[in-house]
Amino acid sequence: MSESTVDADDLRRRVREFLDTRDPGSTEPQEFLRARFDAGLAWVHFPAGLGGLGAPRALQSVVDDAFAAAGAPRNQPERNAIGLGMAAPTILRFGTDEQKSRFLRPLWTGEDIWCQLFSEPGAGSDLAALGTRAVLDGDHWIVTGQKVWTSIAHEARWAILVARTDPELPKHRGMTYFVCDMTAPGVEVRPLRQITGEAEFNEVFLTDVRIPDTDRLGDVGQGWAVAQTTLMNERVAIGGGASPREGGMVGVVTGLWREHPELRTAGLHDTLLRLWVETEAARLTGLRFRQQLAAGQPGPEGSAVKLAFARLNQEASGLELELLGEDGLRYDDWTMRRPTGVDFTRRSPGYRYLRSKGNSIEGGTSEILRNIIAERVLGLPGEIRVDKDVAWKDLPK
User: Fold this and answer.
1) 13-17, 56-60, 292-296, 376-380 — which is least confidently predicted?
2) In which region does residue 81 sit, left (phi positive, over 0), alpha (psi from -120 to 50) or beta (all else)?
3) Staple 300 to which of 18, 88, 204, 376, CB 3.0 to 4.6 Å?
4) Spatial separation of the C-alpha atoms in residues 103 and 87, rounded to whole Å
5) Which residues is 189 bridged to in the sheet?
């Protein structure tokens, strides 16, 4: 089905017909979600048979709003942000027909949670320097190495993984992209306790993990190109989500301002107005970006959206503490937990302030994103890179 044959009215009709045969209140949630996927009402812009109808991406909200109004079960996207926002578009673009058929349905329904095995202790901002090795052994790859800052690895069934398959080549050219079974022998997940006291992140040790060659995404040596698709979608997922005016952290701060006039000062008023205007400008820019995104693949502009999100979230949480004074310094709970997601709006001011520090690190550091914007959006000269043509094995370790 082509985009030209599907419009908003057609999608609303399809949802009504679907709901006529399945009562959201009495149908088992997983059964309901599987049927919704099979009906092409999951990702409407995906191809028919893969959860979609080939409809314009901009019409996704039409379907989501109709199901929400009917009280339909959700696939809990907050639990599977990496799967939905990063793994799925990468599998769609680079996966084989068998991989798409096998992975996408349980990913969308939330039956399979996904994590991301990219960063390493010696390869964070410079991801191409990664050293996790994958050696071909018959029809399997033997993978050994360490990954770090892996969100939700403690709950994940699958992981997207980049490993080095040819150390003789320069660092950007010797990598390959895989899907890794997190329940396979040799996969060990250890919690990383954060400044918040919780451990939503993990470090993952891979010791002679066997990955079938059928779980490779893209060609051997194409890992960097495949990873770029994942990273571009990651930045959109983190900073480019739809938000209403005064949504997110700026809404928390403006609500506090309105409810407690005794906290106001002229200086804080000026800071709040500036923050509100910049947040609204970023929201509208994100809206325009999502409209452009509906027409094709995400580009480097997503780095700017994510960069603005990180800065504004940190400034808003800092302003909240300034308004609260000593009351904002109280911390509610330092219990070691392993949460399944991040929730800024329903947590304490102290948590918001501490957790927001991670916004400028996760999904690409703000420093790296500025480089991407400078080089790929503004067309400025790139940094001098003396290691571009040096074999990875010869680089200083």
Assistant:
1) 292-296
2) alpha
3) 376
4) 9
5) 204
Tell me the C-alpha distance between 312 and 304, whole Å.
12
| 194 secondary structure, DSSP code | -
Between CA 153 and CA 114 the distance in angstroms is 8
Tokens of 84: 């939905």
How is residue 152 written in tokens? 């939700």
Nearest CA-CA partner of 315 in 373, 285, 345, 356:
356
| 141, containing H or E segment | strand 140-147
Concatenate the DSSP letters of all residues of 100-132 into one string.
HHHHHHHHHHTSS-EEEE--BTTBSSSGGG---
**pLDDT tens by residue, 118-148:** 999 999 888 999 999 999 999 999 999 999 9
Q: At what angle do helices 223-239 and 266-293 cross, to 10 degrees?
A: 130
How does the average pLDDT of the chain come out, rounded?
91
Measured CA distances, 135 to 153, 170, 176 (Å): 23, 17, 11
Q: How far is it, in rounded angstroms, from Cα 293 to Cα 308?
A: 18
Residues 313 and 1: their CA atoms lie apart, in Å, by 41
- 136 contact partners, CB below 8 Å, separation of at least 6: 142, 165, 213
Distance (Å, whole) CA 4 – CA 42: 19
CB hemisphere CA count around 232 (13 angstroms): 21
**Cβ neighbours of residue 386 under 8 Å, at least 6 residues apart?**
none
- Token look-up 């639990």 returns 79
Q: Are strands 158-164 and 114-117 parallel, antiparallel or unpaired?
A: parallel
pLDDT digits (tens, 9 = 90+) for 329-359: 888 888 899 988 787 878 899 999 999 999 9
Q: Is 155 a catalytic residue?
A: no
One-letter amino acid of 254 = T
Please report, for the chain, how many H helices and E strands are present, in that order. 12, 8
- Reduced to 3 states (helix: H, G, I; strand: E, B; else coil), residue 5 is helix
Q: Which amino acid is at 91?
A: I
Q: Which residues contact 2 (CB under 8 A, 6 or more apart)?
A: 54
Going from the C-alpha of 54 to that of each of 3, 77, 171, 210, 257, the distances in angstroms are 6, 21, 37, 36, 45
Looking at 120, 234, 301, 320, which residue is catalytic? Answer: 234
